[in-house]
Amino acid sequence: MARRSAxxxxxxxxxxxxxxxxxxxxxxxxxxxxxRITAMLTAMVLKLGSSSSGSGSGSGSx
Length: 62
Hints:
- The chain is mostly helical and 62 residues long.
- It is 71% helix and 0% strand.
């Protein structure tokens, strides 16, 4: 879900660029930060997905 939100944010950045509503240098910096965040989230999902602790969908209480 977080990766999908990052993709939506990238689309908003593209729209800002096309409409000329944001400074190009600022958009480059924001896009770089967004890519770093997305990479961290992707790595976290892959790491948690490969653990043997279960699906992670439960509440943790019994």
